[in-house]
Amino acid sequence: MDELKDGIADYVVDSFHTAQDKLLRQNTGSRIKTMHVSDLVSPCLRKSYYQRLYPMYEMTDDMRSILFHGTVVHEHSKLAPFHEITMCYDVTKDLAYPPEDVKQMDDKQREGIISGTVDDVVKYGDHYVICDKKTYNSKGYTKKEVDPSHALQVNIYNVLLTEAYNITAKYGCVLYLDKMKDLKELPMVFELDPLDDVKEFMRSAYSKLSDVRPPEGEICFLCNGKNKLGKIYCNYLDQCVKDGNRFDKK
Ligand code: SF4
Fold first, then answer.
1. What is the residue with the minimal CA distance to atom 5 of ligand 1?
2. pLDDT, greater one: 24 or 37
3. Among candidate residues 59, 58, 109, the one with its CA nearest the CA of residue 88
4. I need a surface site. Which of 92, 119, 174, 212 has the fewest CB within 10 A?
5. Pairing mode, strands 217-219 and 184-191
6. Torsion angle of alpha carbons 72, 76, 78, 79, nearest 10°?
7. Angle, to 10 degrees, between the axis of helix 2-29 and the axis of helix 61-75?
8. Pick the CATH number of 34-214 from 3.10.310.10, 3.90.320.10, 3.40.50.300, 3.10.129.10
9. Residues 74-101: pLDDT tens digits?
10. Which atom of ligand 1 is found nearest the CA of 42?
11. What letter would DSSP give residue 183?
């Protein structure tokens, strides 16, 4: 009888995982084949470089669960009419393109283009504010400030928004949603950087990610093992050590 119950339990969990996979496939299926904003904002650019060169398709149950959670939250939290809008911008030509045009381009024509999907652009008084939602586990600590890579992501969206829609936001807001506390909200509002500075960063990051040699490895929380379980979050450690040219970000 226990065997039967175990079988039923496994079947139900497998079915749930299939439903999760289906939702995640729908989401990744619509991704445009260009470099993405997320490639530029990793704490270590070399990790993004490896990810593009050697994509890992293996999905662990933990990864599926994290991605599913985030996708569900994003699909059901529209903050403004300007919601989940995809934008494409060529860093080398300083030009924006409609995503429909980019989908028709060949690989050569897509070179230089970075695409990204902004969660929401809200209007507060006279100000446009770019909002990005992030689910996270507080694990007993309270965030004091916005994560630099999250702030950078919003700054890059501001470039795309300006070039594609002629709308420039002065402020960004990352809305952290704590999975340990039933998605309790923690908004972090910050002033956005000058567009030219962000564009310069984008050009530099794009060129490093397109080079034949990997960029420097920035040893950071992804691979320094400085966490309770001594876990390494980067799957490319062996390749990275082999390639050398790593520095400790501290
Ligand atoms: S192991 Fe560390 S330094 Fe190397 S690619 Fe991964 S995150 Fe970057």
1. 47
2. 37
3. 109
4. 212
5. unpaired
6. -90
7. 60
8. 3.90.320.10
9. 888 999 999 999 999 999 999 999 999 9
10. 7
11. T
DSSP 3-state of 123:
strand
Amino acid at 1: M
DSSP type of residue 33: S
Whole-Å CA distances, 184 to 29, 72, 189: 30, 16, 16
pLDDT at 2 over 60: yes
The answer to whether the beta carbons of residues 161 and 118 sit under 8 Å apart is yes
**Distant-in-sequence, close-in-space partners of 168: CB < 8 Å, separation ≥ 6:** 128, 158, 161, 162, 195
Report the C-alpha gap between 35 and 52 in whole angstroms.
Answer: 9
Burial class (CB in 10 A: 0-12, 13-18, 19+), 145: exposed
| 39, 42, 45, 47, best to mutate for ligand 1 pocket (most atoms within 8 Å of CB) | 47
Element (H, E) at 247: strand 246-248
**Burial status of residue 178 (CB atoms within 10 A of its CB: 0-12, 13-18, 19 or more):** middle
Which residues form ligand 1's pocket by a CB distance below 6 Å? 44, 46-47, 50, 217-219, 222-223, 234, 236-237, 240, 246
DSSP secondary-structure letter at 180? G
Closest of 81, 97, 119, 95 to residue 32, by C-alpha: 97
Q: Domain residues of the chain, as ranges?
A: 1-30, 34-214
> What pLDDT was estimated at residue 27?
67
Closest among 148, 157, 145 to 221, alpha carbons compared: 148
